[in-house]
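Repro:
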Amino acid sequence: MPTNSRDLDAALENDEDVRALFAGEWIRYRTSDTLPGLTWKAQSTCARINRIFFDDPEEAQLLFAELVPGAGTGVDFRPPINLDYGIGLTIGDRTFLNKDFLVVGGGYVTIGADCLIGPRCSIYTPNHAEEPGRRREGWERASAVTIGDNVWLGGSVTILPGVTIGDDSVIGAGSVVTHDIPSGVVAAGNPCRVIRPLRTA
């Protein structure tokens, strides 16, 4: 099972389900020989991190670095965290993840540097098939989520598949981000919409 970027590269080359997942192609997670094992391993590691974080913070940090090889320098987090595929997550330097951070599905998720991710923020990358028969058969595909540098997500923000949030923007607490948000704005609501430009003074 992939545990770091080198292993992920090998899996992308050698395992069709992993390749299709991260390529955003249609997959059947529930019938895959590979994907449930990857999520089990990632979620198991998250559970261990959450258990030991305050008693053994150094070990928790080491486990986090193994789980998320794309994490930059100075990334800080508070438990609990819950990730399906740490190998698809990139986090920029000095970003802070508050408690109850959740990433669901196997699309690539990129979070920039110096971000503030509020408590109970969730990022979803999978879309299930709309057509009832294909949905019953378990077809789904993931879309990447990208969060720019110096973004602040208020508490309980939900980001849906395929969304990009531009640099420096602020997303108000409780927002559901269904479409791209440009750089340098305050946005909020369900669905999330731009309210105003950032104050510069």
